[in-house]
Amino acid sequence: MSSGDIDALLRVTSPNYIGTSHPDIAFGTLDGPVGRLTLAVTNRGVVACSYEDENIVFERVSREVGTFIGPDARRLDPVRRELDAYFSGRLRAFTTTIDLRLATQFARTVLQMMLAVSYGTVTTYREIAERIGRPRALRAVGNALGSNPVCVIVPCHRVVESEVVLGGYAGGPAVKERLLRIEANGAGHAPGGS
């Protein structure tokens, strides 16, 4: 979707949007080495960094966060720069703030735990479930990670089923493996932590 397409979509779906004003929610995309990411940034932080189609993310953000949505380079470009630096192996920790309003309360707990998993390391679904005090909630943890609205920045790709099985990922298994390889190269070891 080009910026002209996004602008046209915004005029139809966001009646308050005026092309020259700063929207409440900055909306755009980033084409990177793992495909297109759809981005949305609120005054609280990044609310979406998603592999989903722009229209799906736009509808969800407008339904659950607000309708004054539009392109805003002053808020999107810093996020894009950090993502580019991460993909090139120059950034290990994102400094951008995160807005987890699109996640359920349980998912927020799981996703907050993910922020403590260091660059270049992995953890398991079981370890996350134990850390949040719900050792039998493996499926719920998996669902929370699978619905992560802020992929890459909230590093759900760092959760694996086991040392030999990567497990699922919103961007697909090849993308998960690529992200883990980026981090392994930057951290100086293999994706399994060895």
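^ that was protein a. below is b, sequence first then the tokens
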Amino acid sequence: MCEIKKLNPESVWRNFYNLTRIPRPSGHLEKVKQFLLDFAREAGVEAFVDPANNVVMRKPATPGMENRKTITLQAHMDMVPQKSPDSTHNFETDPIETWIDAEWVRAKNTTLGADNGIGVAAIMAVMEDKSLKHGAIEGLITADEETGMYGANDLPKGELQGDILLNLDSETWGNFVIGSAGGVNVTATRNYKEETVDSARAALKITIKGLKGGHSGLEIHEGRANANKLMARVLTKLVADCSAELASWHGGNMHNAIPYKAETVITIPQDCVEKTNTVLAELKSVFETEYRFVENQIELFAEPVTLPQKQLNATDRHAILRAIYGCHNGVLRMIPAIPTVVETSSNLAIIEIEKGSASLKIFARSSSETMKEYICNTLKGTLTLANFDVALSGSFQGWDPNPDSEILQLLQQLYKQLFGEDAIVKVDHAGLECSIILSKYPHFDVVSLGPTIRSPHSTSERCLYETVEPFWQLLKKVLEEVPTK
């Protein structure tokens, strides 16, 4: 028996384990959708896939509780597919291998998928439990949240029947989230001229890896190193000191994850190989000093590779490299009224430069619409100076907090009753689907909650398993105590 099946609450962990057996990276959700439909059929509850590829489940009220408000429980089915450099895991075919590390549940060399698999597992546990007392319950399990919140964005109006929305995608137990940041994808593209590489030159692959990476909303304030930004510094130094030229660049792989790895291929004069290695050693020491309280496994090294036939011409290389160097990354501003919470940030997530085409993908976040516009214009101003075409996509607004929420007050009351202490009410910098769902169902009374998960979107993702049991207790209690219509 898998270790996590022995954890409490059994129903949540069993369903989570079953979910880890099903491949579900963003963009590849056919298997998990069928898995959820099969589960619902066996549990005896209504289920269907809507036009936005979301799975909706419905369970009628317990006899005598038909007058209670309907609760819509919401989570997303997809997970971020990140793995360690030496992992052979295939997210489209292979199950996630979990293990218990002291008080944490982790995955072996991959993301765990507790974001948001624990939320999905909790919905499944509610749907199959015949002993629970509750009003009508609706489960909304959305598609492709991690790549652009497509399931929420395309959610049909008039489909949901709930009065209350409990989003199960928050990641600190004891916190009730009542507001979150909006976001937008910023994509910059341009072509460049290639030139033939002199056959007398040498080629090296420069690798930066071993960084923590992580969630570009929840962990952006920690000042973690961005592999793409470090690589810009490395290449600038190698161009200046070693006459390097750039042939290709591949850094990052998820728009909402801080990139933990970047690789470039450069060409240099044959007699500069030793000097290049010296420069890299010096820069590695600099980075280790700068990030000594944040990162602990920075790797920076060069390997000889086959000489490429083409490289960027010097003019285009200079323009592109300077644009990347100058591109804003990290926290721009904290919320003035709540100075402990990030208001506006950006993450230089993905860089692809090869075969005459350069592409940068940045994810900008803000809980202020005007500041979101400002950070986008800041990025656009920098990138257009280097002749990039800049496009915005997938924009969604922030979720404005409602401190007078009826369901929030009930949750606070029940939390104090069950656990003897006050919960924390907060606003998150992470983007939650609540804002999008509210734009289509403005009557919803909304709160987000969940057990403690750390370092989502990275191979360090882990779930504090002792927080899942009280999360489940509170969820059952609020279903039982849901207000009347």
